[in-house]
Predict the structure.
Amino acid sequence: MTRQYISMENLRFLLFEVHEIEKLTTYSRYAHVGGKEELNFLLDAAKGIADKEMFPFFKEMDSQPVIHKDGRIHSHPQLKNIIKAVADAGWYTATTDIEDGGTQLPYTIFAAAHLIFEAANSSAQGYIGVSTGSLELISSFGNEALKKIYMPPMMEGKWQGTMALTEPQAGSSLSDITTAAEPVSDGSYHITGQKIFISAGEHEACENFIHLTLARIKGAPAGTKGISLFVVPKYLPSDDGSLQNNNLICAADFQKMGQRGYATTHLIFGEGGPTKGFLVGEVNRGLSYMFQMMNAARIAVGQTAAAVASAAYYNALHYANERPQGRLISDKDLTKEQTLIINHADVRRMLLMQKSIVEGSLSLVVECLKWYDLEKILDGAEKEKAFLLLEILTPIVKTYPSEAGIVSVSNALQVFGGYGFTMDFDAQQYYRDIRIMSIYEGTTGIQSMDLLGRKVTMQSGKALQMLAGEIMQTIEEASGFEDLLPYSKACGAAVEKLQKVLQYLQSFAIKGEVELYMADANLFMEYCGLVTVAWQWLKQAVKAHQALQKNDIPDHQKDFYFSKLETMKFYFKYELPKTESLAITIMHTDKMTIKKEREILM
Amino acid sequence: MTRQYISMENLRFLLFEVHEIEKLTTYSRYAHVGGKEELNFLLDAAKGIADKEMFPFFKEMDSQPVIHKDGRIHSHPQLKNIIKAVADAGWYTATTDIEDGGTQLPYTIFAAAHLIFEAANSSAQGYIGVSTGSLELISSFGNEALKKIYMPPMMEGKWQGTMALTEPQAGSSLSDITTAAEPVSDGSYHITGQKIFISAGEHEACENFIHLTLARIKGAPAGTKGISLFVVPKYLPSDDGSLQNNNLICAADFQKMGQRGYATTHLIFGEGGPTKGFLVGEVNRGLSYMFQMMNAARIAVGQTAAAVASAAYYNALHYANERPQGRLISDKDLTKEQTLIINHADVRRMLLMQKSIVEGSLSLVVECLKWYDLEKILDGAEKEKAFLLLEILTPIVKTYPSEAGIVSVSNALQVFGGYGFTMDFDAQQYYRDIRIMSIYEGTTGIQSMDLLGRKVTMQSGKALQMLAGEIMQTIEEASGFEDLLPYSKACGAAVEKLQKVLQYLQSFAIKGEVELYMADANLFMEYCGLVTVAWQWLKQAVKAHQALQKNDIPDHQKDFYFSKLETMKFYFKYELPKTESLAITIMHTDKMTIKKEREILM
């Protein structure tokens, strides 16, 4: 039997009981899908692929990593089977319109399948995620010719899509990209420059690589307003179906500490001959297009972090249930056999911490996915609300699961003791894999500036008000149950203090002291993450509490709901109070992180 | 020039200004050493070895790790040169009495040299640390015959010493070791059993391996009271100097996530023939002897963690001073060049966090080393005080640098952005290397139980009183300076709240609810670590403040002391307030980590 890496029971609880995703099928766009049963069937099928094709190769794709050797990328042979299995099952076209040959599923269900894949083998899922993201970008903004040529082979998993943003001199600062595009007579562009850290930029499982590339057309305005988006294929498809050299070289790869099965490449455009690129949408609007993909990618990174932390948690839980060691403090009788480590309070604390982070993160992910779907379906004020909630939640859902996930996986490793540090066990791989999540698609620093600098301030704070409104609604619901009252109160108090913190920060912004306003954006983010996940736990607790009030539920379901309530309590005891320290720190009068005349860093 | 991995200026500040280690030379045992100048000369010499022999091989010893292949361990060829250079410079015999052929240096200076080695190459230093620890154990408790035979080649670095405690079924639970010792007619014992995770258990740089092995003599009482200590050599030395097979097999190694240059082995005793062992000291007192080595080893682990975090910090600081990226929030002018990342507030926050953890940890390490020395020199009540302070500080100095160090190094990696995750940069190696420190020599869970269960309660709380007394004395000193008053007050408030927390916990102990008393030992440890390091920062601030009041100091020294004051403030703003959340959590009425009838972990 495959070792557990995700709880399907929990996933179903989140999708259908907490976030009521099946309601999406009441909208005409998804009416053809059926209901909960059909969605469950799809998820079980995804789990089958993950069990068979992905999870068994999780470790091997790490120990036999992707590598650039002899002038080309060598990847694990299983990657081809994985991509094929996922494409054959229709997951590459799951969100594509039926008339374009897709299955037109809710994005949430598509992402839930990805979540299962990520928990099974996050490196492998990377290739799929970036290809489907690229597909959506071409589908949304490409012209008919681009769609016709590039989408079908990408939808079959034969061609790999990528997003090519980063350059050596411009990591987080996209304003400074210099890759150049020069228009040529046939309407295409010649692309010259270099891109680094291009995930899935080349490997052996696909025939062609379609790089959605940001570049600057000669004479374009400086900064982000002068960036255009191009489809740049490694090989140019001819009318007869053959592939022609496009002078796009994968010059090297980056060997990484984790996600070693996921190719990270260095691409060179236009050396040794012209590299053709094709404009997507309008000139100079590239970054706004890319942000569609990037917003989805940011949710996906948070989701992947939650998935990796999930796999690490079940791995540690399994071990704790099998490993005897030591005796309870209250019963040190040496003549008795050693107890299982799951019985030690500190091991239980480490496991409950993981469970509270994993299930809290997953609930937040599903919350965001729901709004991602609704934003596309709804109209008017409802659409606006979905848009604003997504705007403010995106940096949080990228960051909380990544940062808390790193801590969670570290605790998973710790449960194994010395074994956790050895390559024989998987804990260390999860520990290495998850570390990139706070860097991918904008570091935690970048996300925090996005949250405090852009999202909190947008439309005079409307997005934050929307979020606070949603949280207050859950608090109100929870307050209806006496057992939940202490927790709804605690959540309310944390929201209230957050407002105080924000007012404090805004006093700097009002004075024009923007550096001081932003200096502790990272801590503000941590605060928001903690509160947002407290909200998600309260949501889960309400549903669990309601379910437990029914008398006719079977014992194992009772245990499940009871476990939810206890894990919520754990979160409110061990995690949420961290907001208290954060508030003290943010509102501390000492300010020493702003660079002054005299350098203190030595 | 060698890249910086440690600040000798800071080390000297801690040794001589803050902890006044040169005063040790006023005691007769160390009178021959000279004074500060001589000690400085020794440290500079150690730095020379580290620069030349150790740091240049830091990366290579990771990428070409120790490995068990073809029936034996293969280690990096440089290891032999490292051991030779360190032994030739006299560091293997630095603490040995002059009459026994040593240099009889203060332990603190010996450990300071180790600290330099650890920052340069923690894997390499491992071999030296475990050998000198074994030497001290034989020297303290071995009979003359053992000393005569085993010490000289170990002192020359020709033979490797190890400590062999852990067994597959008994990791943290030493009560459960089963390795057996059967007395034979010649006064020696036949040892049978297996030991795992034996660091430096075999490699190519030494001729023989002397395992200080815990085993149970047939018929010994159960638990830790029935454990004896043995010298078990891989090869038995004959009178003619030749080495004879002792049937001690290195059966395998453990490939690890980090410290890959440090051999971790699996030993089998007494298979294919008898393995001889020689009793050290008295029967059944093995664990108490081993604790001498283990206490020093625990300080050494904390010290190594601080050293690794130091190396990672200077690595990140160097990068931040060279890497341009983005623009200041207050000056987004795109026509200007990108700014160095060290100018961004969030990068500065990450660097200052590292500096506050590294220098705070190092100060705590030197504090403990000082008491380690004094405990050996002093008599009567003074000796008792030193003993008690060491007892209570040992679990803390093992844990704070390890746990905070992991966070510190993670922030170092984050400073590099995507590059930090690549194998081309060293950040990821530090990240992998330091992760073991919270597991080595008793996990954080074990240390926390030691602190709250044993050290806090010993002699009716006398050790904790001693520590509180020391802290109060520093608070008083700091309160004499108006600028330091807010920080001495904050430290005092944290100590006061700690007492409240402890009273709360003791209410459970009084009722006999020991599981509840101990359930959050880990958080109690975190609290104690934060306060203890706040104390160390206050100590440093007092000295820095005093120094700045002198008018005739050169500018670069002024900068150094000013930087100390600012880093102290950083710690008091960003780190110490974490105690507030910890207190809330520990005193929260919900208790869900004690195992109850109904399992909530699923």
